[in-house]
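Hi R.,

Quick one: here's the Cation diffusion facilitator family transporter sequence you asked about.
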Amino acid sequence: MSRSMKFAIGSLILGLAVLGLKTVAAWLTGSVALMADALESIVNVATALAAMVAIRVAAIPPDDNHPYGHHKAEFFSAVLEGVLIVIAALFILRDAWGNLFAPLALVTPGMGLAISILATALNAGWAFVLIREGRKMRSPALVADGRHLLADVITSVGVTVGLVLAIVTGWWLLDPLMAIVVALNILWSGGRVILESLSGLMDEAVPPRMMEQVRAAIAAEAGGALEAHDLRTRHAGPVTFIDFHLVVPGEMSVFDSHEICDRIEERLRNELGEARISIHVEPGFKSKAEIASAEVITPQ
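And here's the predicted structure, written out as tokens:
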């Protein structure tokens, strides 16, 4: 079992535990904000299941129908998670609006808040673990799951603050008002997850910092070549796809040009991890060094 799958299973187990705790807290208090918070935890369970499916599919080796692999399945999962976050926020807004004009006093708020705070602490700790490890493994599904949990944490903190103020002041209107505020924050978080996932599905280039790393690696290991140009990159899950043209002297042998390609590929894989690299070797007259608009990488 892969590390990504282990984390996805951990998210599912934690999601079920937190869902149970928040449901009990909402039932004890009768709070619309805590009920909304519990409602969002149902989405946590659904997204954990989606992440498990996506990671399993992404691990399937390339085949005749998918020669580049199945890594984009994780982006589909992340988009689904973003959509579910938005749906949860809309449900919260609906429930909060219904109670805005007829706020109710809470029942046994102390016990409910204590249980909710425990659930929030569990979510916060696991969210940071998912984001940190998801970035290390370059897993969009795990990172999206972690961000979703952080949105849940923000929701819970806001709800807790609102309920404490409501208890102290007797202004029970704060309960639905706080639910509305945190729902809007969840909408923003869900939109961000969707946009970032769509960029992967649209074959967006790697981030600028990584692109500079790719250029530097090519320049450092392309000794003997004349230049590299037409560099293109994209990413799909943990895999980075890189292709470019490498210009070598016309008299250079196939063996020597292949040695240069091997050096570049080894350097890129050492620095970027899993990568699929395609290098098109061209003779010297294909140089673009004199074309002002061309992006040329010159060997160091």
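Residues 192 and 207 are 16 Å apart (CA to CA).

Cheers,
M.
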